Amino acid sequence: MLSRSTISRNAPRALQKQCSAVNGRGMASAATGLQYDVSESAGVKIANREIAGPTGTLALVAKAGPRYQPFPGFSDALEQFAFKTTLKRSALRITREVELLGGEIASSHSRENVVLKAKFLERDLPYFAELLAEVASQSKFAAHELNEVVIKLLKYKQQALSANPECQAVDAAHAVAFHRGLGEAITPSTSVPFEKYLSAEALAEFAQQAYAKPNIALVGSGPKNADLSKWVGEFFKDLPSAGSSSQYKLQPNTASKYHGGEQRIASKTGNAVVIAFPGSSAFGGSSYKPEASVLATLLGGQSTIKWTPGFSLLSKATQGFSQLRASAKNHAYSDAGLFTITLSGKADQVATGSKTAVDILKKIAAGEVASEDIKKATAAAKFQALESAQSLSTGLEATGSALVSGGKPYQIGEVAQSIDSVTEAQVKDAAKSLLSSKASVAAVGDLFQLPYGEDLGLTV
Amino acid sequence: MSAPSLASYIAKRPMLKRWMMPIANWYTDAAGYRKLGLRADDLIPEESETVQKALKRLPPKEAYDRVFRIRRAFQCSISHSLLPAAEQVKPEEDVEYLSPIIRAIEKEAAERADLDNLVVKR
Question: Could you state, in order of their start, the residue ranges of all structural domains in chain B?
Answer without folding.
Answer: 32-117
